[in-house]
Design goal:
- The complex is a heterodimer of chains A (209) and B (594).
- Chain A is α/β, with parallel strands linked by helices and 209 residues long.
- Chain A is built from 9 helices and 5 strands, in the order ααααβαβαβαβαβα.
- Chain A starts with a helix and ends with a helix.
- By secondary structure, chain B is an alpha/beta fold.
- Classes of the chains: A alpha/beta (209), B alpha/beta (594).
- Chains A and B meet through helix 4 and helix 7 of A and helix 5, helix 13 and helix 18 of B.
C-alpha cells in the first residue's frame, strides 16, 4: 500500500483524517513500522523542508505535528508491543533561566516524527538536571535550546557538567535557538547546531547512519 | 598605543581612535548616532557607512570594520532620525500644582549679643520649622545670608533644605520630566512656580549602539567589565544634552532645576541609576528595585542643581516599568469606571487592562519588527521610510516620509503593507507570500503579480528600486512577514490573556488606548486587519501619544500623583506570561493573520 494519503493528510494538518487512515491501514494488516517509516516520518520530513523554504511557518509545523501524533498514538503502543527499536533516543530541554519552549517543542515533535524516542525535560533545566537525565535515560542525543543571549551561557556550563560527570563520549550534543550559531556551537564543543527543528532531525539522522 | 584619525562626513568631525577599535565605537566617540540594533554583532546590517579612499568608496558595516589607518567615513543621511515620540501632540496637562520640592523666601533676623543664635538656628526660626540642611546648603548658608542681607530663599524637599540662595529667587524654580525610552529619550522643562511647560526636546537613546532591545544592553553589562558604567553615562549624557538645549531656549540656568522625575522601563530605570540589571534577563526576572527611588542629581551626573532631587517612577515588574506606571497615571485608569485596555507598543509591548479601576498588566516581547530591525529593508521612521501603503486600481502606492524615493520601510509602513497584501490575497491568512503564478491565477493585475519573485533570500514582494546605483531593490521578504507575525502574535496574545484573566471578551472593551510613538503613527485599521488588536470597533481605538512622558510630567507637578504612583504599583496584578500553560497555544494560533 502506498501511504501517500497518510502523508498528504499529515502535511495538510488534517488530524482526524490521519487517525482514520492510520486505523484503516492497521485494520488492513499494514505493519505499524511501515506506517511510521513510509507514512508519518517522510511526511514530517516534507514538513521540515517546507518550513525551510518559507512555505510553512510555526503554526503549520505544529498543526502538521498534531496530525502526525494522531497517527503516531495509534502506532506507538503496537511498536512497543513488538519491541521495535526506535531510531535513537533524545533528551531535549530549554536551558537554565530560560522559559521559552515553542522551539524546543517543535524539536520534540519533529524528532518523534522522525522516528526517535524523545524525553522532553521541559524548560529551565539546570546542568545537573541534564546530567541526571543522561544517567537515567541513556540517550544518543542531548538537545539544548535557548532563546536569549543571556541564557545561552548555560549551554557551555551544561557541556562542562556532562564532561565532569564522565558522560561526554556517550552522547551527541546538539544546540539551537534564535541567538545560537555554528560558531558558538564550535566554541563550546557541541557536536552540532541546528537552525530549526527540521534540521535537528536531518543532522541527527546523519549521526545515526 | 597607536591611534589613527577618523574623519566623519558630512559633519566634519574628526576623532582619534585606538588601533583595532571599530568604526561603530569611533562614531560613538564622535557623537554620531548610528543604529546598532543587533548590538554590534554584524547581523542586522543597519550600521552601514561609506569608507572613502582615494576617490573610491565602498560600503562597510561600522561594527565589523576596525580602524587600522587614517580614514574618512561618510555617514548615510538616513541616519538622521525623526524623533516621532518627541513630535507627539501636546495635550495640556490638568493637575493641581503641588510640587515635592518647594522654594520659600524668608528673612533671617540679624544676630546680636542678646540673640546669639547660629545662622542655622535663626533660619529655622524664620522658617518656623526645624528643617535640617544638606551639606551643600550648610556650606552656602553664611554667604547667602550675607549677600541677601538676611533675605534668603531656601529650597526644601521634605524636611531637608537642599539649597540656600541669597535674596528672593522663588521664581527661579524649574523641574524636568524625563521619559527614558529604550529607543528615544524625551525631556520636558517646567516652571515649577507656575506649572507652565517651557519646552520639550528629544534624542535617540545613545545606548542603542549596544543593541536595540533591553536584553542586548543587559548582555553588554554582563560581557564588559565597565559595561554598566558606559551605559549609565551614555543615557545621562543624552539627557544632559537635552537639558542644555532646553535651558538655552528658555534662557535659564540648569542649576535652577531642582527636581527631575524620570519614567523608564525597568531596565532603563536600572541603567540610568547605574544599578546592575543582569538578574532581569533569566527567569525569574528579578529587578534590584521596583519601588520609587529618590537620589541627588550629583550622584548620577545629571546636570541640574547638584542637590536636586531625581525621582524614579516606581516599576511594576521586571518587564513592566515606570513608563507603564506613568501611562496608568496619565490615563487615570484607577479612577475609570469603564473597561479600558491601554497598550504601549514601544520597543517592548506592555499592556494594562482596567476594569472598573481594577488593573491587570502584562508585557510581551513584541520584538523589533515594529522598529524596523530584523526586517531586511526595515528602518526607523526617517526620511525615505515607506510609512504607508494604499491601493490603486491596478497596483499600490507607497507613502514615503519626506516624499522622496524610498530607502526602506518602517514599522507602520510594514503593518499597512501587510494588511493591504492580505486584502489582495497576495499574503495568505497563514502568512505565506504567494508565487507570481498563483498571483496571475488569482486574476491580479500584472502591476501586482509581477512584483512577486524569489531570490537567494527567499520569496519577496517588490516595493521600489534601490535609491543607489547598482544597489539592491527594496523588497519585503517572506522572512520579514514572519517577523511581523511573531510581533503581532505576541501583542495579541498578551491582550487575550489579560481579557481571559478578567473573564472578558474583546466586545466588552469600552476603549482601547494606544500609547507611545508607534501607537500614534500606526493605522488602526491595519492593526485590526492583521489581527494585532482583537476585533473592536475602530472608533473605540484612540492614540494617547506619549503617555509615559505626560505621566512623568504629572508626577513632577504634583507630589500627590507621585505618591499615587506607588499606590498604583502596589495594586496592579502582574500576569507573568512565561509561567502560563495556555500561552503557547494562544500564541501559535495568533501567528496567523486571519
Amino acid at each position: 500500500m502506498s501511504f501517500t494519503e497518510i502523508r498528504q493528510a499529515v502535511i495538510e494538518g488534517a488530524a482526524a483524517k490521519v487517525k482514520e487512515l492510520t486505523q484503516a491501514a492497521l485494520d488492513a494488516g499494514e505493519s505499524p513500522q511501515a506506517i511510521l517509516n513510509e507514512g508519518l516520518i517522510p511526511a514530517m520530513g516534507t514538513v521540515g523542508e517546507k518550513f525551510q523554504s518559507g512555505e510553512f511557518y510555526i503554526s503549520e509545523m505544529m498543526i502538521s505535528a498534531r496530525a502526525m501524533y494522531s497517527g503516531l498514538n495509534l502506532v506507538k503502543p503496537l511498536l512497543s508491543q513488538q519491541k521495535a527499536e526506535s531510531k535513537g533516543k533524545a533528551v531535549v530541554g530549554t536551558v537554565q533561566g530560560d522559559l521559552h519552549d515553542i522551539g524546543k517543542n517543535l524539536v520534540c515533535m519533529m524528532m518523534e516524527g522522525g522516528g526517535y524516542e524523545v524525553i522532553d525535560l521541559g524548560i529551565n533545566i539546570t546542568p545537573d538536571q541534564f546530567v541526571a537525565a543522561i544517567k537515567e535515560h541513556n540517550p544518543d542525543f542531548v538537545m539544548m535550546s535557548a532563546l536569549l543571549t543571556t541564557t545561552m551561557a548555560s549551554m557551555e556550563k551544561t557541556i562542562k557538567a556532562i564532561e565532569a560527570a564522565g558522560l561526554r563520549d556517550q552522547v551527541k550534543i546538539a544546540i539551537g535557538g534564535a541567538p545560537v550559531t555554528q560558531k558558538y556551537a564550535d566554541s563550546i564543543g557541541a557536536d552540532f547546531f541546528a537552525s530549526d527543528a527540521g534540521e535537528a532531525v536531518s543532522k541527527a539522522n546523519a549521526f545515526i547512519n | 598605543m597607536e591611534t589613527y584619525k577618523v574623519l566623519f562626513l558630512p559633519e566634519g568631525i574628526e576623532v582619534n581612535v585606538a588601533r583595532g577599535d571599530s568604526l561603530l565605537k569611533a562614531a560613538a566617540l564622535a557623537g554620531i548616532e548610528l543604529e546598532g540594533p543587533c548590538g554590534g554583532k554584524g547581523t542586522c546590517g543597519k550600521c552601514k557607512v561609506k569608507l572613502v579612499e582615494k576617490g573610491d568608496s565602498r560600503w562597510v558595516l561600522a561594527c565589523r570594520t576596525l580602524v587600522t589607518k587614517n580614514i574618512k567615513v561618510e555617514i548615510p543621511q538616513t541616519d538622521i532620525q525623526l524623533h516621532r515620540k518627541g513630535e507627539l501632540e501636546n495635550i495640556p496637562l490638568s493637575v493641581k500644582l503641588k510640587t515635592s520640592v518647594h522654594k520659600q523666601q524668608v528673612t533671617v533676623q540679624p544676630p546680636s549679643l542678646d540673640y546669639q543664635v547660629s545662622d542655622l538656628g535663626r533660619l529655622q526660626q524664620a522658617l518656623e520649622d526645624k528643617v535640617i540642611p544638606s551639606h551643600h546648603a550648610l556650606k552656602s548658608l553664611p554667604r547667602a545670608i550675607e549677600l541677601g542681607q538676611g533675605k534668603v530663599t531656601v529650597v526644601l524637599h521634605e524636611k531637608t533644605i537642599i539649597a540656600v540662595e541669597p535674596g528672593d529667587t522663588t521664581s527661579k524654580f524649574y523641574g524636568i520630566a524625563v521619559d527614558i525610552g529604550t529607543t528615544t529619550v524625551v525631556a520636558s522643562l517646567y516652571h515649577l512656580k507656575s506649572g507652565e511647560k517651557l519646552g520639550s526636546a528629544s534624542a535617540t537613546n545613545a545606548q542603542n549602539i549596544f543593541g536595540a532591545d533591553v536584553i542586548s544592553r543587559i548582555e553588554y553589562v554582563i560581557s564588559q567589565s565597565d559595561g554598566l558604567d558606559q551605559l549609565q553615562r551614555r543615557v545621562t549624557n543624552v539627557i544632559n544634552r537635552l537639558l542644555k538645549q532646553l535651558c538655552q531656549k528658555a534662557n535659564i540656568e540648569p542649576t535652577s532645576i531642582y527636581q527631575a522625575v524620570v519614567a523608564g522601563n525597568t531596565t532603563m530605570s536600572h541603567l540610568f541609576l547605574g544599578v546592575d540589571p543582569r538578574a532581569l534577563a533569566p527567569s525569574p526576572y528579578i529587578p534590584v528595585f521596583t519601588q520609587k527611588i529618590a537620589i541627588k542629581a550629583k550622584e548620577i551626573g545629571l546636570n541640574i542643581a547638584p542637590e536636586g532631587i531625581v525621582s524614579i517612577i516606581p516599576c511594576i515588574a521586571g518587564y513592566i516599568g515606570g513608563d507603564t506606571t506613568a501611562m496608568i497615571l496619565d490615563a487615570q485608569l484607577k479612577t475609570e469606571r469603564r473597561t479600558i485596555l491601554a497598550v504601549d507598543i514601544g520597543t517592548n509591548g506592555e499592556m494594562v487592562l482596567a476594569v472598573n479601576g481594577r488593573l491587570t498588566a502584562c508585557s510581551t516581547a513584541a520584538g523589533p519588527a515594529f522598529e524596523g530591525a530584523h526586517i531586511k529593508f526595515g528602518m526607523r521612521a526617517a526620511p525615505g521610510a515607506v510609512e504607508g501603503v494604499t491601493t490603486t486600481p491596478q497596483s499600490i502606492d507607497l507613502k514615503v516620509i519626506g516624499g522622496g524615493a524610498p530607502k526602506g520601510i518602517c514599522g507602520s509602513g510594514l503593518l499597512e503593507l501587510v494588511q493591504v497584501l492580505l486584502d489582495l490575497g497576495i499574503i495568505t491568512p497563514s502568512g505565506r507570500l504567494i508565487s507570481p503564478e498563483e498571483g496571475k491565477a488569482l486574476g491580479l493585475s500584472p502591476a501586482l503579480w509581477e512584483r512577486l519573485g524569489r531570490n537567494a533570500d527567499g520569496n519577496y514582494f517588490y516595493l521600489a528600486p534601490s535609491p543607489e546605483e547598482g544597489g539592491d531593490p527594496i523588497v519585503v521578504y517572506q522572512r520579514d512577514i514572519r517577523e511581523l507575525q511573531l510581533a503581532k502574535a505576541a501583542i495579541r496574545t498578551g491582550i487575550e490573556i489579560l481579557l481571559r484573566e478578567e473573564g472578558l471578551l474583546a466586545s466588552d472593551l469600552d476603549q482601547v488606548l494606544l500609547a507611545g510613538a508607534f501607537g500614534s503613527f500606526i493605522n488602526k485599521h491595519s492593526a485590526l486587519g492583521i489581527g494585532m488588536l482583537p476585533p473592536v470597533n475602530p472608533d473605540l481605538i484612540t492614540s494617547i501619544g506619549n503617555a509615559a512622558g505626560r505621566g512623568a510630567s504629572l508626577a513632577l507637578l504634583s507630589s500627590e500623583v507621585l505618591d499615587e504612583a506607588s499606590e498604583v504599583v502596589a495594586n496592579v496584578k502582574h500576569i507573568e506570561l512565561s509561567g502560563r500553560a495556555d500561552f503557547q497555544d494562544i500564541f501559535v494560533e495568533n501567528l496567523s493573520f486571519r
